[in-house]
What does this fold into?
Amino acid sequence: MDNAVAALFALGRNMGPQCPPTIDAFGLALSKFPLRSDLEEALKVHKLLVERFLGEDAGLMGANNKNLAKILSVLAEIHGEEDISNPEIDALVTKVFKALPTAMIQQHAAAFSEKQQKRIEKILTSP
It folds into this structure.
């Protein structure tokens, strides 16, 4: 399943404009994130996710930023998880949350689990 999700993410990344308008490759892939079975693939795809987010990829964000809450919840979920993240990914995730306006994070707080909310608070208060 993780490889199929990674392939769908790659489709959105590399061929997004060629996808039919009714197909949201990123949205479909994000619905299955974070990856947890194929740990090698998880590290690659989670890093790509953060990099694409930092690069302000409009396709990843979706129309009217519809994927933003899901992306933030995934980033909070993977941060600090030894098997599906690493120090480089964690540093990028920290950079994301510290760069976002607090109001934007709070606006999407309803989409976060309690565990994710605690991780975000920890990220924001870390030096």
Observations:
- Helices lie at 2-15, 25-30, 39-54, 58-61, 68-78, 87-99, 102-107, 114-125.
- The mean pLDDT is 94.
- DSSP finds eight helices and no strands in the chain.
- Residues 39-54 form the longest helix (16 residues).
